């Protein structure tokens, strides 16, 4: 029998970076479902993941925007796409210091860029690997934002690779190890950076996706993929290091990915670009990100590319 990963109240408070009293209050209100083991309350990882998805902006509790952002019409709000918790922290700084009302979207890197091209997103986070150049993000941004001036700012860098079960019983060490009869993966949705990384690695390693068992099975977040591996629903998944540590499984680092922000350059965005640059470069913001762990902030705030 496979068992889903679960957390104690203290672990949930650490993951959400709130007090245990806040977690107990959410439990009391019925917003966080729990079960009891003796006198101890525990929460399933899937329930915590669902809660985080439905409350993506922690400060003002503004609603999640749908993946394609087709209903975003209010120009008084700024939309930030992507799933990393650092984007929530960025939104917090922008709301507090500059009174920017923030909407958060779960759209993956590629879908976020398409939304920006269609005028439905203000800040897009991207981590898309190009197998031909070995470069992150810029090859895709250049192709999609044709005709638009933009700036590409570094948010952070992080390790990406493979989630495997504790002890790595199948001894999975590389992308080529996925091409085995007895290995089953759990994939990410189309348009996500993790899905692009997998597809590019399969392509440059000459592995047909039809050979990969579980390729069509998808989850929509790093935490969901890691939880699926932990629960024995798959042998391996693709994602970044942080989720593996949260869930308590092993992680095989295979690449350092650059996680960047894209903002269009126009008259309306001049102040926005300056604000984001100032926040990213501030010691306070960088110290908060560094305290989370597993992030490289050596390039945070630097301009990776800019059109004029």
From TrEMBL:
It holds the Pfam family HTH_17. Residues 7-55 form the Helix-turn-helix domain. It comes from the Bacteria. Residues 92-280 form the PBP domain. One of its GO terms (molecular function) is DNA binding. This is Helix-turn-helix domain-containing protein. It comes from Pseudoneobacillus rhizosphaerae.
């Amino acid at each position: 029998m496979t068992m889903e990963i679960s957390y104690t109240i203290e672990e949930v408070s650490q993951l959400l970076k709130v007090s245990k009293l806040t977690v107990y209050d959410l439990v009391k209100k019925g917003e966080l479902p729990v079960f009891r083991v003796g006198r101890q309350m525990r929460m399933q990882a899937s329930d915590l993941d669902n809660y985080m998805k439905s409350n993506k902006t922690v400060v003002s509790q503004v609603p999640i925007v749908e993946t394609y952002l087709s209903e975003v019409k209010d120009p008084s709000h700024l939309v930030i796409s992507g799933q990393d918790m650092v984007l929530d922290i960025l939104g917090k700084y922008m709301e507090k210091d500059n009174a920017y009302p923030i909407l958060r979207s779960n759209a993956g890197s590629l879908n976020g860029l398409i939304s920006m091209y269609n005028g439905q997103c203000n800040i897009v986070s991207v981590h898309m690997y190009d197998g031909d150049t070995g470069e992150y993000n810029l090859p895709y941004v250049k192709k999609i934002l044709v005709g638009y001036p933009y700036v590409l700012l570094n948010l952070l860098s992080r390790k990406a690779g493979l989630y495997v079960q504790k002890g790595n019983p199948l001894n999975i060490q590389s992308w080529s190890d996925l091409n085995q009869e007895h290995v089953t993966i759990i994939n990410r949705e189309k348009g996500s950076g993790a899905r692009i990384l997998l597809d590019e690695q399969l392509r440059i390693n000459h592995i047909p996706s039809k050979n990969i068992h579980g390729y069509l099975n998808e989850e929509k977040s790093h935490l969901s993929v890691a939880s699926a591996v932990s629960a024995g629903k798959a042998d391996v998944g693709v994602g970044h290091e942080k989720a593996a540590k949260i869930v308590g499984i092993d992680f095989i680092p295979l690449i350092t990915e650059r996680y960047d922000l894209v903002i269009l350059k126009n008259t309306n965005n001049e102040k926005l670009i300056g604000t984001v640059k100032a926040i990213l470069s501030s010691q306070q913001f960088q110290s908060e990100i560094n305290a989370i762990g597993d992030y490289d902030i050596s390039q945070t705030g630097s301009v990776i590319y800019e059109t004029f």
